[in-house]
Write a structure and sequence with these properties.
The complex is a heterodimer.
Chain A lengths: L1 E12 L2 E13 L4 E5 L6 H8 L7 E6 L2 E2 L5 H11 E4 L11 H11 L4 H14 L15 H13 L5 E5 L7 H16 L3 E5 L3 H4 L4 E6 L2 E4 L1
Parallel strand pairs in A: 3-8, 3-9, 6-7, 7-8
Antiparallel strand pairs in A: 1-2, 1-4, 4-5, 9-10
Helix pairs in contact in A: 3-4, 3-5
Chain B lengths: L1 H14 L1 H29 L11 E10 L2 E5 L6 H8 L3 E10 L3 E5 L4 E5 L2 E4 L3 H4 L4 E3 L11 E5 H8 L8 E5 L3 E10 L12 E4 L10 H5 L9 E6 L5 H15 L6 E6 H7 L4 H30 L1 H13 L4 H38 L11 H27 L3 H6 L9 H33 L10 E6 L7 H9 L4 E7 L8 E6 L6 E9 L3 H4 L4 E3 L12 E5 H6 L10 E4 L2 E9 L15 E4 L14 E7 L5 H15 L8 E2 H7 L2 H35 L1 H9 L4 H35 L10 H28 L2 H5 L3
Parallel strand pairs in B: 6-11, 8-10, 17-22, 19-21
Antiparallel strand pairs in B: 1-2, 1-12, 1-13, 3-6, 3-12, 4-5, 4-9, 7-10, 8-11, 9-10, 14-23, 14-24, 15-23, 16-17, 18-21, 19-22, 20-21
Helix pairs in contact in B: 1-11, 2-9, 2-11, 2-20, 9-12, 9-14, 9-20, 11-12, 14-20, 14-22, 14-23, 15-18, 20-23, 22-23
The chains are: A alpha/beta, B alpha+beta.
Chain lengths: 221, 796
């Protein structure tokens, strides 16, 4: 599904190149649940952003489902992202002034999905995540775990083929964390490809494969 | 989608109450001021445009040359209108109007009720054809055909006849003699933007048989006279040929005529009248309205960009969820539209509440129907659309272009987004505020300067009481009784009240064949003494002034008439009579201090029995009170005496110093209105600064936290946060001061007597604005400085 070949990404600092990604090659199959581990600054987030096409890279090739991303224009990349990828943040990034229901509905609005269909889709996912009772609450009225549930629900509403999660449980306690991981596992079993970046060995263990990053390169597969 | 945006707009509004209040409240306030001023300006500019043929209707005026002085004549002879209509085929019709300026006593003979009215007009029978005034009752074609027909406004008809039908009933009008008029029509009230008042219209044919009108009707040639004359052209472009025809008509009547005739479109009359104070007003007010709107807009944009930091995350999230740049821009436009719309609704509410107060402040009366004038409404809608566009443009373009990943990484706050723009805005706002404060002080100083000006005579504690000829022979008895009242120190009389204009006579010029216009004033022998007018060359003998053919002149007359520096004994020729100069008084202002003191000849009447040469009919008493007198009770006494001797005309009086102050009424009004707007502009600027300080403090929360952890004291932090803003205000003061100095210097050039621009005015305005700025930002600075650093340094 994803093919990264010899990816380099650097920033210039004092005339020297500092490598964020250094000759990184990675192949991810459809249906995998990949955990990326590594210390702070090892390039986990950068890699996720590159995979999500939110960030560019300086050298190398990237194929997403056979499409040569490195040759595409920004607009096309954005549309591939919007069609295929759901992104989950450590800080949830819900819209504060929208209710749970409205937060989940937002991607559908931008996709111009019809009202009746929207209602059905949102209702389904609320039901699946067991948060129907919370649909009219605002994010600040929820616990961290519940907020992340909403974040995941929002990422899933467009039925993405790939979910990218950047330390999804970084702000949660261990119980909440385990629940989110179990949910990921279930989703993966339903066929969604998942890539998560994490600090925690425990979380990484939920994945089908783990890679370790060090200074922008894969140190152990 | 759109519903979603609007919902979010309202939730944002509710969540950020401070921001909403400043943004929407300030904007509404500014808009409301702008609407009121626009209302005034549009109304001033709309004068006489309601006439269907307004573009083709012109007012005739003439310039005539009298020994070098060009005098403007606004009125022509009674035959002029008919003559030009017959002579020039470009003129489709013409009309004459004479206004009776003296009060007219109107009686309803059925119930003997009696009223005194002014502004009666005499006009031709084509009045309702020519203009677009409407009759409610009566036939507009024939109502003014027969002599002694009168048309009343609806209100006056009610006043004289109550609810009964007045058509065909009689009214007696006492002008000098008394005449009986028949009511032939009821007119609609005069629109507030009409320069012709139509409350009382009388057929001009009546003048043929009225003896008061003898002099008005005498001239049978095309020349100046008593009738305001209007022509309606077939083609409004044909002004020049018609002007030529009129000049030719004037030469036909009088071979040596050098009179030049001009046409002014009826819609221009109003703004050109009254020494063009109207034009000045309209210009200044338009500028102020524009500034207020601009400042309010700037606040809006400035605050929106300041808030960009807090909205950036939202935009990032939206983009991650599939929003395009366009849909984000649309969202901000829509949000801007919602806020601007609320502001407009609020502004309309403010406007309705403030309208009566504002109109009384600028001293105008505006029909409320004018609110629905299509021109006015379309201007407002134009402003609405423009505001939505401008207010939405900046946030829509800048905010929507953010890269989502950057804003979500959280390093957005470090970018000084729009900070420079906000600084420029803040400086601009304070330049306007400081500049206006300086201007306000200078205008105030100038008015004070004028009010306390030594005008060469004492005008305090002097009451002026004009006497009408209805008092006739009882004038001297009345005067004596007033003089005997306790509290009255001196009493004097003159042909006219002070500061209300003078009569002109023509005297022979010693150096040429020409004639020189010379203002004259007839007085009694007490006048000079009672008003403390000083002598330059005193009378040699007390009684010489009252001798027949004696004249007293002021110093300015010596130059004007080219007399000897010591003119005693010189002869001034008024028509057929010769007058000998017996004394010279020092110059004193008898007219506006905005003009140079003109020449003046004073004739002193020999006795208290105040009879005037030169056919003066009216007179005015000058009653000087003792310093400790109870003024209101004396006025009541005088009124009692007046009513005893004059049963027809109402008792009128004016204090001389108030009459003097009234000469610069327009400046005082300007000052008053400007005060309000200065207050408003300071308020709006303050609100903007407050909002800016709030967001700046939020933006620097982390920095403040770090500094505090490192040991900074509250005072140091407060200073740190305040000093940046104070710098901006200082820059504003430096920019505003020279501009204000220059503009006010120009403004003062319009005055003959002017105050000096002193340094303290600038210091005062500067210090004042710094204090205002300090008060505004200190709240936020202190609040940020005392906040617990643990909170601000905690990450998500």
């Amino acid at each position: 599904m994803i093919q990264l070949d010899h990816i380099y990404k650097w920033v210039k600092s004092g005339g020297r190149r500092v490598f964020l990604l250094n000759d990184l090659s990675l192949h991810i199959e459809k249906g995998e649940f990949l955990s990326i581990m590594g210390t702070s600054g090892s390039g986990k987030s950068t890699l996720l952003n590159v995979v999500a096409m939110l960030d560019g890279f300086d050298e190398g090739e990237y194929y997403f489902e056979g499409e040569a991303i490195h040759d595409l224009k920004a607009k096309k990349r954005t549309s591939i992202f919007n069609e295929n990828i759901g992104f989950i943040f450590q800080a949830y990034h819900l819209l504060d002034e929208l209710t749970v229901y409205e937060n989940i509905e937002t991607p559908l609005l931008y996709k111009k999905v019809k009202s009746s269909e929207r209602k059905a889709l949102v209702a389904d996912i609320l039901d699946k995540f067991n948060i129907v009772g919370k649909k009219d609450l605002f994010p600040h009225q929820l616990s961290g775990g519940q907020q992340q549930l909403v974040g995941i629900a929002r990422a899933l509403i467009i039925k993405p083929k790939l979910i990218l999660a950047d330390e999804p449980t970084g702000n949660l306690n261990s119980t909440q964390s385990d629940e989110i991981m179990k949910l990921f596992k279930e989703l993966n079993e339903e066929g969604v490809t998942i890539i998560q970046a994490t600090h925690s060995e425990n979380n990484a263990a939920y994945g089908s494969r783990t890679i370790k990053l060090l200074d922008g390169s894969i140190s152990k597969n | 989608m759109i519903r979603n945006y609007i919902k979010i707009a309202f939730r944002n509004l509710n969540r950020n109450k401070l921001y909403s209040t400043i943004n929407i409240g300030g904007f509404a306030l500014g808009l409301s001021a702008c609407i009121l001023i626009m209302f005034y300006v549009t109304h001033e500019k709309s004068y006489d445009t309601f006439h269907e043929d307004s573009k083709r209707i012109f007012n005739v005026f003439a310039k005539t040359n009298i020994s070098g002085d060009v005098i403007r004549m606004n009125s022509l002879s009674s035959v002029a209108a008919k003559m030009i209509e017959d002579k020039d085929p470009n003129v489709s019709s013409a009309i004459k109007i004479k206004t009776e300026y003296n009060p007219v006593i109107i009686k309803n003979p059925e119930n003997q009720s009696q009223f005194s009215e002014t502004d009666l007009v005499y006009t031709d029978s084509n009045f309702f054809n020519f203009f677009s005034f409407k009759l409610i009752n009566g036939n507009p074609e024939t109502a003014l055909e027969r002599p002694y027909s009168i048309i009343l406004s609806e209100n006056l008809a009610k006043k004289y006849f109550g609810e009964t039908n007045p058509i065909g009933r009689n009214l007696s009008l006492r002008i000098d003699s008394t005449y009986t008029f028949t009511v032939t029509g009821i007119s609609e009230e005069t629109p507030s933007n009409s320069s012709i008042k139509t409350d009382l219209i009388v057929s001009a044919s009546s003048l043929n048989t009225m003896k008061e009108a003898f002099y008005d009707m005498r001239s049978q040639i095309f020349q100046g006279g008593s009738f305001q004359t209007f022509v309606k052209l077939k083609d409004p472009e044909k002004v020049a040929p018609v002007q030529r025809s009129m000049n030719a008509l004037a030469v036909q009547g009088h071979e040596e005529s050098t009179d030049e005739y001009f046409l002014t479109n009826i819609t221009d009359i109003h703004l050109l009248s009254r020494e063009s104070t109207n034009v000045k007003y309209v210009k200044i007010f338009s500028l102020v309205a524009l500034l207020i709107l601009l400042l309010a807009l700037i606040n809006y944009i400035s605050l929106s960009t300041a808030r960009a930091g807090t909205r950036a995350k939202e935009i990032g999230v939206r983009k991650m969820n599939g929003a395009s740049q366009r849909s984000v821009a649309v969202q901000f436009f829509l949000e801007s539209a919602v806020y601007v719309f609320i502001s407009f609704l609020l502004a309309i509410l403010f406007t309705i509440l403030l309208k009566p107060w504002f109109f009384s402040l600028v001293g105008i009366q505006i029909d409320s129907s004018f609110f629905f004038d299509p021109g006015f409404i379309s201007t407002m809608v134009g402003i609405l659309v423009l505001t939505i566009f401008i207010a939405g443009l900046y946030p829509a373009i800048i905010l929507s272009s953010y890269q989502p990943i950057e804003t979500l990484k959280g390093n957005f706050g470090n970018r000084k987004n729009g900070a420079q723009l906000r600084q420029v805005f803040t400086i601009f706002q304070f330049v306007v505020a400081v500049g206006l404060i300086i201007s306000g002080i200078v205008i105030h100083q100038q008015i004070n300067h004028l009010r306390t000006l030594d005008t060469g005579l004492s005008r305090t504690d002097v009451l002026m009481v004009p006497l009408q000829n209805t008092m006739d022979n009882s004038q001297s008895v009345f005067r004596e009784e007033v003089e005997n009242l306790p509290g009255v120190r001196k009493i004097a009389a003159a042909s006219l009240p002070m500061y209300g204009g003078t009569n002109m006579y023509f005297v022979d010029d010693k150096n040429s064949d020409g004639q020189i216009p010379l203002p004259i004033l007839a007085t009694d022998h007490e006048f000079i003494d009672a008003l403390d007018i000083e002598w330059s060359i005193p009378l040699q003998d007390e009684n010489i002034a009252t001798k027949k053919n004696s004249v007293i002149i002021n110093e300015a007359t010596i130059n004007k008439l080219h007399l000897n520096p010591n003119p005693i004994g010189e002869i001034i020729v008024f028509g057929n009579s010769q007058y000998e100069v017996v004394g010279v008084v020092k110059d004193f202002y008898y007219d506006s201090p905005n003009n140079e003191i003109g020449a003046l000849a004073m004739f002193v009447s020999p006795s208290k029995e105040f009879s005037m040469d030169f056919g003066e009919k009216s007179s005015c008493l000058f009653i000087k009170f003792r310093a400790n007198a109870n003024v209101s009770s004396i006025i009541k006494d005088i009124e009692g005496l007046y009513k005893k001797y004059d049963t027809e005309n109402a008792f009128e009086y004016q204090f001389m110093d108030e009459a003097f102050d009234a000469l610069f009424r327009s400046e005082m009004r300007l000052a008053k209105v400007l005060n309000v707007f200065i207050g408003l502009i300071v308020l709006i600027s303050g609100m903007g600064l407050f909002g800016y300080a709030t967001f700046s403090a939020q933006e620097r929360k982390k920095e403040i936290g770090v500094r505090k952890v490192l040991g900074a004291k509250v005072t140091q932090i407060t200073y740190l946060l305040s000093v940046d803003f104070l710098k901006l205000v200082m820059v504003a003061i430096l920019i505003a001061s020279p501009i204000a100095w220059y503009v006010m210097q120009q403004w003062l050039q319009g005055f003959e007597n002017r105050t000096v621009l002193e340094w303290w005015i600038f210091a005062f305005a500067g210090t004042g604005s710094i204090l205002i700025a300090l008060a505004t930002i200190s709240y936020q600075s202190v609040k940020a400085a005392v906040a617990n650093p643990v909170k601000s340094l905690r990450t998500e």
